[in-house]
C-alpha cells in the first residue's frame, strides 16, 4: 500500500503442493516479501487474512512445527529488507 492506502503490489497463485492452509499462507507471505526485496521496497504494510500467520511471524518464540523453517525464513527476510514494516490482520481480504 502506498501512503494513501492504495494497493500497488499484490499477487495470487496456486497453493504449494504438500502444504496445508497455514503453510500456504506462510509461503505466500514469503513470496510477497521476495517480491518486495526484488523491487527495493523497505517501508510497507504486510497484510494477511490469517491471524495465526501474523502471530507466528511477529512472535519471538521458536516454531517447532513442520512450518518452522517457513516462519524463520519470513522473519529473517523481514529483518534483512525492512526499515519499517507494519503488520495488519484483516478478518477477510476476500471480496464478499
Characterize the largest beta sheet: strand count, sense, and whether it forms a barrel.
Answer: 2 strands, parallel
Strand content: 5-15%
Our measurement of the CA-to-CA distance between the termini, rounded to an integer number of angstroms, reads 21 Å
Radius of gyration: 13 Å
Shape: globular
Helix content: 40-55%
The helix count comes to 3
Q: Write down the secondary-structure element order.
A: HEHHE
- Helix/strand structural class: alpha+beta
Question: How many β-strands, per DSSP?
Answer: 2
Poorly predicted runs: 92-96
Spatial strand order of the main sheet? 1-2
* Mean pLDDT rating: 77
Observed structural traits:
96 residues, alpha+beta, 2 strands, globular, 43% helix
Describe the structure in your own words.
It is a single chain. The protein has helices at residues 21-39, 51-58, 68-81, and strands spanning 43-48, 84-89. The protein is of the alpha+beta class and 96 residues long. The chain has a domain at 43-96. The chain has a two-stranded parallel sheet with strand order 1-2. The longest helix is centred in the first third of the chain and has 19 residues, at 21-39. The radius of gyration is 13 Å and the shape is globular. The model is unreliable at 92-96 (pLDDT under 50).
Short description:
The protein has helices at residues 21-39, 51-58, 68-81; strands at 43-48, 84-89. The protein has 96 residues and is α+β, with helices and mostly antiparallel strands. The protein has a domain at 43-96.
Amino acid at each position: 500500500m502506498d501512503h494513501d492506502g492504495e494497493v500497488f503490489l499484490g499477487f495470487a497463485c496456486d497453493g504449494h503442493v504438500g502444504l496445508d492452509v497455514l503453510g500456504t499462507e506462510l509461503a505466500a507471505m514469503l513470496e510477497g516479501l521476495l517480491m518486495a526485496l526484488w523491487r527495493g521496497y523497505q517501508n510497507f504494510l504486510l497484510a494477511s487474512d490469517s491471524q495465526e500467520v501474523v502471530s507466528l511471524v511477529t512472535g519471538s518464540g521458536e516454531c517447532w512445527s513442520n512450518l518452522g523453517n517457513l516462519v524463520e525464513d519470513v522473519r529473517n527476510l523481514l529483518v534483512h529488507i525492512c526499515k519499517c514494516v507494519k503488520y495488519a490482520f484483516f478478518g477477510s481480504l476476500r471480496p464478499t
